[in-house]
């Protein structure tokens, strides 16, 4: 490809693979035994309105290339945001220079050719939203106005936002793999404050989807945010107690996220996981299951292939409470003497199996205990599993919400918490790559006054 041709590239869609090819050709010319390159272009619009006025309108355009080369088992990587042909060649040269000074690593290298995707599926991830800044502003203002209209006690706002994002990613390597795909993500969000006397509380709501037509109505998002803020007024502190804890779906996915972190290949081969060597062991109750479904149409964490070009595929991660395998890319798989699971870059659409109880039924099953709707702080030790995080929510008595609570801490150990999950609700939140309903844990320490 000539420099004239490279200057004509529009950096959109089908043009990006040509740049990947240029980088791979340059790496071969410089003597690399293997090479891989990934290029991404992302564009987006975001608008925030606060107290009835537009606060910010931002247009985003990001682009970049990352290239990795191997000289035998020596590895070098470099990146650039300049996608001109000359800059790409310089970036490849830098990666090659770095590789010559790195230590040999027998686990380094591309994914095996047999693991690469040969026919990437079309997953319906691209739904461009032709929304103007004026239309986005009107929608954000309408969202916030609906929240503020819920109750006169809503006296302040953190604002409402409308965002739209479109991205293209192309990846190729010297095994002959070269593919690209596009995707969009759109969202509406709102956060408001409610006050009554000296009591002030904040809450939020949001909607996000690949297809803008599947977003919740702006006014509905605002009303939900306003209602959530109002219901938290009059929050009390609790004395320290041991009680069952029900995690609402939007926070329950954090429990699953900690589990995934513990079974990632990096945590395993570094011997830094509270679930070390746990494959084949029962980690959850015998009815519990987690499935990975990378090819769900329009889903937020769907992908036709992982960051190494390996084919993503359906798998059962947990069945009958037993951990069936780890989350691995090629490098971590080699370190552990295993095969990649097509998870370079993370997991893709985890589905936690529900058992049929809706949210009201989950409250009744909780009986007397804590409903957590918001978590604060980190407080999670990935090596020991110790868990201690700030929380807010509601105290539940006889299966009914009694009153809001805040300034509390919920604590336990994740290994014990997982083994003592009582049920998973059917109130599944699909707004992330972890799809779960509310999760009830049999007992935890709740620290307050």
Oligomer: single chain
Computed structural class? alpha+beta
Number of DSSP helical runs: 10
Provide the spatial order of strands within the biggest beta sheet.
3-2-1-4-5-6
Low-confidence blocks of residues: 1-11
**Count of beta strands:** 17
Relative helix content:
10-25%
Shape: globular
What integer value in Å does the Rg equal?
24 Å
Intertermini distance: 69 Å
Task: Please state the average pLDDT score.
Answer: 95
| Fraction of residues in β-strands | 35-45%
Biggest sheet character? 6 strands, antiparallel
Summary tags:
PmbA/TldD fold, 36% strand, alpha+beta, 3 domains, 17 strands, globular, 449 residues, 5-stranded mixed barrel
Write the layout of secondary structure elements.
Elements: H1 3-8, H2 16-29, E1 34-50, E2 53-71, E3 74-80, H3 85-99, H4 133-148, E4 154-173, E5 178-196, E6 199-209, H5 218-231, E7 241-247, H6 249-263, H7 265-269, E8 290-292, E9 315-319, E10 322-323, H8 330-336, E11 350-352, H9 359-366, E12 369-376, E13 386-397, E14 400-413, H10 414-419, E15 421-424, E16 434-435, E17 439-447
Parallel strand pairs: 7-12, 11-16
Antiparallel strand pairs: 1-2, 1-4, 2-3, 4-5, 5-6, 7-17, 8-9, 8-11, 9-10, 12-13, 13-14, 14-17, 15-17
How would you describe what is shown here?
The protein is of the alpha+beta class. The chain is 24% helix and 36% strand. It has 3 domains: 3-41 and 58-115, PmbA/TldD superfamily (PmbA/TldD fold, 2-Layer Sandwich); 133-231, 2-Layer Sandwich (PmbA/TldD fold), CATH 3.30.2290.10; 235-449, no CATH class. The protein has helices at 3-8, 16-29, 85-99, 133-148, 218-231, 249-263, 265-269, 330-336, 359-366, 414-419; strands at 34-50, 53-71, 74-80, 154-173, 178-196, 199-209, 241-247, 290-292, 315-319, 322-323, 350-352, 369-376, 386-397, 400-413, 421-424, 434-435, 439-447. The strands form 3 sheets. It has a 6-stranded antiparallel β-sheet with strand order 3-2-1-4-5-6. The protein has a 5-stranded mixed beta barrel with strand order 7-12-13-14-17. A 5-stranded mixed β-sheet has the order 10-9-8-11-16, with helices on one face. Strand 5 (178-196) and strand 6 (199-209) form a beta hairpin. The longest helix is centred in the first third of the chain and has 16 residues, at 133-148.
